[in-house]
Amino acid sequence: MTVDREATAPFTLRERRRAAAVREILEAAERQIAEDGPAALSLRAVARSLGMTVQALYHYFPSRDDLVTALIAKAYDALAEAVRTAIETAEDDSPVERVIIAAEGYRRWAIANPERFQLLYGTPLRYYAAPAEGPTTQATRRMSALFEQELFGGFTELQLAAASTPDLSPSFVEYLDRLPPTGRRKLPPAATALLMSAWGHMHGMVVLEVFGHTAFLGDHQAEVFRMSIRNLVEDAHRRITLPEAGREGVTNAAG
Are residues 50 and 85 located together in one domain of the fold? Predict the structure, then answer.
């Protein structure tokens, strides 16, 4: 029987020192990204800012890719935490309003952390490739699970399977059906397509704002964002209905 490390013994002094060093390196790299942008990330500059050699830094991050992967995973976790915190304020709100509040948490973090947001969703860093099924993949799935739960949490499996979407090609349906679950349950292809459509719309609005393309809206950017998210969520919920044989006794979560 395997017992969690935390339940058996505290971390050793060496482990605590290593964790502290890793934390300092990540914070120094984040400062460099905030000042010069993700493309300018340099292990040599990070090491110099901490008064250590590049060789010493390699002891904690053997390559630039390892450091970038850790930075991306950390940024995803921070963004997910911002969304989760927003959701916690929405306990008594309607299903549509909860999604809006989650999306607004996403938007606020992106606006407050444009360089880290760019690291996640901007121009890919040259020569960097995220490890397959690595920390960044797991982090994106945790983020997706939050929005999946808020968008579809009030619907049954039968309702989601019967969602009305534009005709999907058989090959696309087969592909969607093979995707691993990101939340508590595996979504049917139609619901996955709706989720990706809603995500792309929401994320696109945030990208436009973070990179200055909606500055002409001035102080009304938040209002336009809220209106857009409300429209897309209401449309997604209208598309989720039950087949005639299964309607009795089931209430649509969209009201």
Answer: no
- Whichever domain contains 5, its CATH number is 1.10.10.60
Mind spelling out the 3-state secondary structure of the chain? Answer: CCCCHHHHCCCCHHHHHHHHHHHHHHHHHHHHHHHHCHHHCCHHHHHHHCCCCHHHHHCCCCCHHHHHHHHHHHHHHHHHHHHHHHHHCCCCCCHHHHHHHHHHHHHHHHHHCHHHHHHHHCCCCCCCCCCCCCHHHHHHHHHHHHHHHHHHCCCCHHHHHCCCCCCCCHHHHHHHHHCCCCCCCCCCHHHHHHHHHHHHHHHHHHHHHHCCCCHHHHHHHHHHHHHHHHHHHHHHHHCCCCCHHHCCCCCCCCC
Give the confidence band of 253 by pLDDT, cuts at 50, 70, 90. Answer: very low
- With a CB cutoff of 8 Å and minimum separation 6, the contacts of 57 are 25, 43, 46, 47, 50
- Residue pLDDT, tens place only, 14-27: 888 999 999 999 99
Residue finishing a domain among 28, 62, 96:
62
pLDDT band, residue 9 (cuts 50/70/90): low
Q: What is the mean pLDDT of the chain?
A: 88
Mean pLDDT over 121-126 rounds to 87
